[in-house]
Specification:
By secondary structure, the chain is mainly β. The protein contains no helices and 6 strands.
Length: 78
């Protein structure tokens, strides 16, 4: 859900199974705070990021898979 408070869940439905996915979370200054690498298989189509230690505000979430990149604006709410 966006906004998130403790746990950010990213739904990877629609991405190619068995292809490596890199997820990165950046603050407003462009500093990378979190990086998670995963290869989705079958029903494992979600990435969960623990964001409970982050301050409230806006962040950028970047999801990459092979030649595809998507960047989303995320809100952390307290």
């Amino acid at each position: 859900p966006n906004p998130a408070s403790d746990l950010l869940t990213i739904d990877l439905t629609g991405l190619k199974n068995s292809e490596h996915v890199t997820t990165k979370l950046f603050d407003a200054l462009g500093q990378q705070l979190i990086e998670k690498n995963q290869t989705p298989f079958g029903n494992n189509c979600q990435i969960k990021l623990d964001v409970k230690t982050l301050a409230a505000g806006f962040y950028l979430l970047q999801v990459q898979q092979k030649n595809w990149t998507k960047t989303l604006r995320i809100v952390i709410n307290r």
